[in-house]
Amino acid sequence: MATPGAARAEGRPQGPIALIKPRVLWLLVLSGLATAVVAEGRDVDPVQLLLLLCGGLLSVAGANILNNVLDRDRDSLMERTMWRPLPAGTVGPGAASAIGVTAGAAGIGLLWVAFNALTAMLSLLGFLFYILVYTVLLKPRTPQNIVIGGLAGMLPPLVGWAAVEGSLAWRPAAIGLIIVLWTPPHFWSLALLHRDDYARAGVPMLPVVGGERVTRDRIVAYSVLMVAASTLLALGGTVRPVYLAFALGLGAPVLALSLMLYARGTERLARALFKASSAYLSLMLMAMVLDSIVAGPWG
What we know:
Layout: H1 22-40, H2 46-76, H3 85-88, H4 93-114, H5 117-138, H6 145-149, H7 155-165, H8 170-193, H9 195-201, H10 206-209, H11 212-233, H12 241-264, H13 267-295
Helix pairs in contact: 1-2, 1-7, 1-13, 2-4, 2-5, 4-5, 5-7, 7-8, 8-11, 8-13, 11-12, 12-13
């Protein structure tokens, strides 16, 4: 077990709700719901969406809680995370583990009963990938933890599509690819701000292992790929003009910020990119929903 190597930063313990990582939860569940609407357009069943929302919330929340349990010692060494409920001691690991497993099982079970086995199996795959592959295997061992671990972000769109269509297709995989490409610039910009934290906790994030210049190079590369992938999605099959306008309009400022960060490397720009990338993904998913309602399903 790790022992804190620095004085505890000023702050106060976070409430139990922090265990589910609300921001991550929101983006992942939204991607599943948005993809379901993309598949069905305005004909999507609101009851199906509600059931998908409940199942997604439970399964993703369960995975996030177990991630907190496994990360609690590392979190205790980082100023950014030491006031989370587990390292702060406001919630015990045993209780958190029980809640995480129960929530995950309930969510996956609900998806199986309400939809089909494929939906449940995809949700289970995402659950296990995030906990075992990313948290246990990748995060403490390789600076590519975010790149490979980001593959977990491809599962929620597949879940959303499978729930309403009962099968898979290239479009939900393409939406998932955007999330995979979004993950490195989003989290590496955060890692640039907390490089010392990650070094203290022994997490080999790219800024710690490769340095800031290499990290800024990679941020630009993945930002370019992300914007290109989101734009090409609008051109596959039938052109989606509403979505295309959003893809270009939202992608341009994120790409500009990544280039400015590459050139100047300031904390202000890293923080701006982190916040802008969060807004980018939420708005892109909402743009897909708007387009599917206006112009019809993408299936």
